[in-house]
Every structure is written in structure tokens, then in C-alpha cells.
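User: Run a structure prediction on this.
Assistant: Running it now.
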Amino acid sequence: MPAPIDATQTQAWARLVELSQDLNPDLRAWFAENPDRAENLTRTMGNLHVDLSKNLVTDEVLEALLQLAEETKVADRREAMFTGQHINNTEDRAVLHTALRNPEGTELTVDGQDITADVRATLERVYAFADKVRSGQWKGVTGKPIETVVNVGIGGSDLGPVMAYEALMPYVKDGLTCRFISNIDPSDSYEKTKDLDPETTLVIVASKTFTTLETLTNARLVRTWLLDKLVEQGAIENTDEARKDAVSKHFVAVSTALDKVADFGIDPENAFGFWDWVGGRYSVDSAVGTSLAVAIGPEAFEEFLSGFHAVDVHFRHEPPAQNVPLLMGLLNVWYVNFLGAESHAVLPYAQYLHRFAAYLQQLTMESNGKSVRWDGTPVTTETGEIFWGEPGTNGQHAFYQLIHQGTRLIPADFIAVANPARPLKDGDADVHELFLGNFFAQTAALAFGKTGDEVRADGVVEELVTAKTFPGNRPTTSIMAPALTPS
């Protein structure tokens, strides 16, 4: 593997230093001087519209950022990832989460392994299992069908599945619910199981090695609860054989450690594996998403994968100036390394996305939480931001004050869905329009602020004018989807 390129030694970096020192952001003036700014800086990715126009960038800044990507050979690293080169050199592994969503028939062989065939074979097993649970064919120890799926995991084995399950709640099968246990605090497992019927509960234990301390501890807690409750209800006899039979009917695993799975009491035939080339934070579209596949069904899960794949294709093939993931990543580099930003707000105007910020926290902060480069030498740049956020309009009444009027620069991504996830009743359309109105109004207020004269025009007394003035020039990216669907 070639030595990493020091971004700070490139011509583009030097140019960005100059531009940042000379930058005098004035979004009001920029929009007035260029009425087409919003149109010129809006990109599409599938059916997503991504408006970058309210970011603190000029044409010269964007040109220099794209030059930086070229000089640091981002395209080469991207292709190395997609083709299965061992870019994870500390573990000498490929990084192939993109292969999890490749369409059937995609040719990809890495280290002698037919990646697509292996992925599809595992998916088919997951789908067959999901169909059994959803149809009632899979039954608990007393012959009752499953009504609740409990996913026990942590990190990527929890954050991805719970985020997607909550986001796709309108697609969940009626009469079926999922719960997610991750914290080793025993109150987590207690609260998630206290009102469940063990006879209709199925537990998925997600741990690649089946040695993760938190996950195995919680799995044992849930196993004890389920068995003791079954005995208490008279559903099974209090014998080792009866308990073993109950575990085999109420527990499955997402793991490759089949010996440890068997030791726990789970039938290895009911274990779904994934691969060393899948990092946990990227694993929701592998067997780690089994709980989601059960909840929304194989057909919707395939749509879920197709959405990932559409973004992969865009990122891999779209020209740099139109490439949304590349541009958003470069904007982060700009804000963190040149304008002093330390955090990044993620603000979905969709309640179903209330776990999305937490999911992005792991994706970004675990990936970029590094202080050395791949050859072990110290980094020469800032490596990431603190990602955080809450759904609108909750955040408006909690922390937006700091973003609007505080002294820190906090770039923010606003996410909205044009059409509601569930059919609206008479009168509800006005509420949805009000909700979206907040989305548009907040990005405008952050960008353009409110001058002293505008405050005075509202009749505010002079001594309060400065307190009610908004400086504006707070950067935002607006992402609009037509609907919240699996894809």
C-alpha cells in the first residue's frame, strides 16, 4: 500500500488556507448577487434533492476543495475499497460493506471468494427465516407464533437495526414488534422484557465473535428471564431438557462463532453469519439486520438494500462536482480544518428518523476517530467532528438558540420528507405543512439572520434590539426526500 498523502502539503490546501483567511461570508449578499445560487448548488442523488447553497463556500472554495480531493487521490482510494483491496491495513482486510447491497449477479471475487454469491446465500437464509416468523410457521415452545422480536446487540449490532426499524415503522407487519437491548445496565433488559409474553418472544443475539461482553451478558439475562417466566407460567417443566428445547425455539444468533453459539444453546442452523470485511458500524444491511428483515419483510428489505446501492453507484461514478457524498465530505473538511467547527448537527424533520443522529454518530466518529494515518504516522489535519442532533421541531425548543446566536460555528444538515409516511386525515395536511414550514424557515433564518433594522420594524424596544438580532451566515445543507420509504 502506498504511503498516505499529506493533505497539508498540497497546493489545494495552501489555496484553502488563503481563501479561509480572506473569507468574509455574507449569504445575503451572495444570494442577491447570484439569484441562481440555490439552483447552481443543488445536487440530486436518486430522488434526493441536496441543497448546498446555504454553506459558507464560494466558487473558488469549491474549486479548491475538489482540487484537494484530486491531489489526495480520493478516487483511487474509493476504487480500492469497491474492488476489495485491503485498505484496512491494520487488520489486512478488505472493506466491502458496499458488497452487501450489490444486486444478484454482480461479479466480485476477492481473495478467491465469490463475494456476491456468499452474500446472497446468507440473505436467502435470512429471508427464509423472516418469512417463517412473519407467516406464523416459526413457533415458540408452546406452539404459539412470534409476536415480539428482541434484538440483543451493541454498537453496530444495535444502532443500525434500531434506527432503521424506527424509521420504517409504517412498513412493520401488524401484530409484530421489535425491541432492542444494548446497555449492560440490567435495567435496560428489564424494561424491554417486563411486559412481554415469553411464549411469543423470539430473541436475536447479534455478536460476530459471540464474545462481546455487553451482548453476551444481556443475552444471558434475557435467557434467564425467558426460561424462568416459562416455568412460572407452567409453559415448560423445570428440567434441563425442557429449558434447552425452549432456548432452541426462542433464540437465534447473528454470528460466525458456531461453537460458541451452540454452547449458549442456540442451534447452529439458526445462526446467520457475516464477514470480517464488514465493520460493525456498516453492518445493518447484512445478517445484523435480521430483526429488520423480520419486521418489514424480505421484499421491503431488498428495497432497503437497493437504496444503499443507489448511493454506492452515485458515489462511485458521478463526476466530482456533482458527487453528493464527496461534496458533503469536503465541506466537513472545510469547516473543521479551516473555519474552526468542532461539531455537526443532524436535524431530521421526520419523527421516524429520531435515531438517525445516533446512527451517524457511530458511522462518522468511529470511522474518523483516529490520530494516526494508515502507516502509523501522526495525522496532520483535524480528523472529525462531534455529530449530534434531534428531530425538529423538538430541537428548536432545546438547542437551536446556540446555533442561531451562539459564538460557535455549527454546520447543520436539515433533512425533510415532502410527503408524510402515513395517510393524513382531514385537517392533518395543515399540520404537515406547518412542520415543513419550520424546516424552510429555520434554514433561512440561520443563513440570512435578522438585522437590527428588521428587529426594530417588529416594534421591539431599542434596548432589546441587539438581543433579538440574529447574525446569520450559519451554514446548513438541506436534504429533501419525496417520501420515507425503505429505499
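The chain has a mean pLDDT of 96.
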